[in-house]
Amino acid sequence: MTELAKVPVTALKGVGAALEEKLARVGLENLQDILFHLPLRYQDRTRVIPIGALRPGQDAVIEGVVSGADVVMGKRRSLLVRLQDGSGTLNLRFYHFSQAQKDGLKRGTHLRCYGEARPGASGLEIYHPEYRALNDATPAPVEQTLTPIYPTTEGLTQQRLRQLSQQALARLGPNSLPDWLPAELARDYQLGPLDEAIRYLHRPPPDADLEELAEGRHWAQHRLVFEELLTHQLSLQRLRESLRAQQAPQLPPARKLPQRFLKNLGFAPTGAQQRVGAEIAYDLAQPEPMLRLVQGDVGAGKTVVAALAALQALEAGYQVALMAPTEILAEQHFLNFSKWLEPLGIEVAWLAGKLKGKARSAALEKIADGMPMVVGTHALFQDEVKFKRLALVIIDEQHRFGVQQRLALRQKGVDGRLCPHQLIMTATPIPRTLAMSAYADLDTSILDELPPGRTPVNTVLVADSRRIEVIERVRAACQEGRQAYWVCTLIEESEELTCQAAETTYEELSSALGELRVGLIHGRMKAADKAVVMQAFKEGLLQLLVATTVIEVGVDVPNASLMIIENPERLGLAQLHQLRGRVGRGSAASHCVLLYHPPLSHIGRERLAIMRETCDGFVIAERDLELRGPGEMLGTRQTGLLQFKVADLMRDADLLPAVRDAAQALLARWPQHVSPLLARWLRHGQQYGQV
Ligand code: ADP
Ligand code: MG
Q1: Ligand 1 pocket, 270 CB below 6 A?
Q2: Organism's domain of life (predicted)?
Q3: pLDDT attached to residue 433
Q4: Which domains does the chain have, with CATH numbers?
């Protein structure tokens, strides 16, 4: 039999050019794609359920005789059809119906329906059931298997997808769909045969355990989940290999610059900073590109580590680019690096998207000319930015950058030949299991020690009915010479509304706290205005800063010791942790008030309680993962890494260690199986993370 991966969808009955295009849009190009387009869930249409035995919420096939059909005028006009089967009666309700439809539902008509039974005004009702009239002479067979419900897109019906999978299944056999998991691995990890798993999942038998399937615990699912996670792992390891195969500038350990830098710094690096610094220094001295992730909780001092790495490249006469996801953060790095490097005689350039006109072309020219240190936003990724001798790229807060952007950097190396080293820093601690999967292409260093003298932030939950007391608290703190943040959270995904709310809050607090100097900062302000406000807050000219979550990452004002977060229930825990990390940076005892809007849901209360209990980012990340699931936590859109078809990182996290071992075995012993697996599971171009 021909391999199904080689048979185009147009080989199926009923697939013409128009349908071919629709299918291509969801990545279905050949029969293997069709078979790996798996149902999201199932309906049981294999049995007719007596009306008397129906439970509310149950999806079921029922049969009965129409005992009456009336148009009723409730809140909305609807057609109500009474159906009875000897065991009971229920109503079918139609809000949209034609005269012809009404005529077809006359008293005495024998119907078979499918739909969800819901509690109605008088017993159970089914809204807009699928139905057909039965002819008493010829009995209508029920379905022989559970009915699959596929993920779909506009213009592609379930009916159509079922027909296609039916046809593809008819051609399925062990030879038409090669099993790329070697028998030895399948045995070691107790994985069943691929073709049987596929057949089962498209058309489960009537006795299949729907609950087990819904929870993803069935062996057939397990078989595919394993293969999918394995493939994902392989793609990241391939990515890593392809980067490692490049040449990178070898940077000898630096001596002079770090010495002078540390002397001026005013504090000694922590043990963790020294250890991670040494790991990086070693990598940079190698001829292949470093790909290292530094995970360190907020305030752990990642910037110093980044500076030490930069100095190694700078001392060797190369360029360094440092990029951050927001302008505020990039700007702060710019100020820090200018302060640190200029005394050493090293110039620092600035590049952001908002830099326009002459200033921009001047910056571009300087960079092309070999300006040693360049700090900016993702504008640094743009094609027009050409470096002369780029040897190291430092990316802060990596979870906002995609893999594809990291790859784009390859082209920016020395003469486009040497690939720059990459140092990625994140303050979003990722639970170990996930890190293994999400960052399989990176080496990891952990900065697990905070600089001395930090006191944990004391966090309290306060209902917003006590807002006035909280305002008084801000007054008291500022009168003692401390500074405070008042953070307004995102309103319904609308940045505009959120900024407006921040403006309103700013006015309210300015008038309530007339004697305090209050500032406002939000995402819709001009970069220059933001910088002025930030600078004033840093210098202590402003005592209270009303802000949106733009201050979430990196902003560093040690004298700020109080943070109020409005509606914290709207934010993820990782984000709350980031925000809270803006205080507790000095030696004063710091406080964070989570000013929530009651009533909180059960989970909402539990989540905020976690914030009160711990300041450890790793613990928070683990608990957040348990409560919310990984997609949300990592931000699927940003990473582009976690869009699985059958796997669910949360549910299947315990498989990851085995998956990683299997991936290593496959790469070492069956390398020819890797490409077919990638082609099977990943859409074109996604193979190296280019979503
Ligand atoms: P993050 O890891 O969150 O990026 P930063 O690099 O912004 O942390 O550092 C937070 C603060 O701690 C800064 O004010 C920085 O100067 C200070 N800091 C960093 N390392 C040390 C150290 N070893 N001793 C004292 N303070 C330090
Ligand atoms: Mg930082």
Answers
A1: yes
A2: Bacteria
A3: 63
A4: 4-43+147-215 (no CATH), 51-133 (2.40.50.140), 256-447 (3.40.50.300), 457-614 (3.40.50.300)
